[in-house]
Amino acid sequence: MNHVFEMKNITWLRDGKKVLSDINWSAEVGQHWALFGLNGSGKTTLLNMLNGYIWPTTGEINVLGHRFGDVDLRELRKSIGWVSSSLQEKLHGGDKAQNLVVSGKYASIGLYDKPSEEDYERAMMLMKQLRCGHLIDRSYVTCSQGEQQKLLIARALMSSPRLLILDEAANGLDFISKEELLDSIDELAHQNHAPHMLYVTHHTEEILPIFTHTLLLHQGEVFMSGLTRDVLNEECLSEFFELPVDVSWKNDRASLSKK
Ligand SMILES: Nc1ncnc2c1ncn2[C@@H]1O[C@H](COP(=O)(O)OP(=O)(O)OP(=O)(O)O)[C@@H](O)[C@H]1O
């Protein structure tokens, strides 16, 4: 397998409108990607497609070496971890932190199967890895938003996914919580057998150096994609936003300001 995923000539029409237009995108093994786009640019639609929840009008999709159409999507989804805010609404808030994390193994929202001792040990190991081991026995609803995000990532890691999608994972977090979460993501990427990661965001400064590649999505089209350093440049982003912007790099992260 050379590609983590590959989208070829993807188009999606809805109500006579092209929501996605001629998307060509491939993520290769060894790359972590950021997907950057404004509200309504089609990011969520693309993610739903990668997970096989919506089918392209035209084009072909391969994920983790499997071509859509030839693969049991429910099986494939076990290898894809997806952390998104829409998940929050489906969770049982009263669950204890460790139970919520363990439930990731069964790809179910609550706990329907009886987890083993090893499952709980793994959940604790992941919680410690994400620096939230102290949340054991706390109910999910009482955790802060930053803590909740970490628990959701630990939950997604429970089934050892090969692709981990982090969809606006740092949304709504204050500066400290955001940096803590980003540190955890950075550490995760440096571990042996780390999953391939796709980080979806509206904020360039969240694109850590581990995200070697970035795709800019603009009104359902690939505006530019490639090495993050090349994509996040002033000329390209000014054109992307249709607004002159300055890009300054610090610690290999790009921050934007209006010119
Ligand atoms: N089922 C649908 N039917 C019709 N239009 C849709 C449907 N789903 C999405 N769209 C439209 O497609 C466009 C892209 O939506 P999408 O949710 O993928 O954007 P996004 O980049 O994830 O936005 P945000 O950052 O605000 O979450 C929007 O204009 C949206 O209204």
From TrEMBL:
PROSITE patterns named in the record: ABC_TRANSPORTER_1, ABC_TRANSPORTER_2
InterPro entries in the record: AAA+_ATPase (IPR003593), ABC_transporter-like_ATP-bd (IPR003439), ABC_transporter-like_CS (IPR017871), P-loop_NTPase (IPR027417)
Top-level taxonomic group: Bacteria
Key words, A-Z: ATP-binding, Nucleotide-binding
Annotated Pfam families: ABC_tran
All residue ranges annotated as the ABC transporter domain in the record: 5-244
Gene Ontology molecular-function annotations: ATP binding; ATP hydrolysis activity
Protein name from the UniProt record: ABC transporter ATP-binding protein
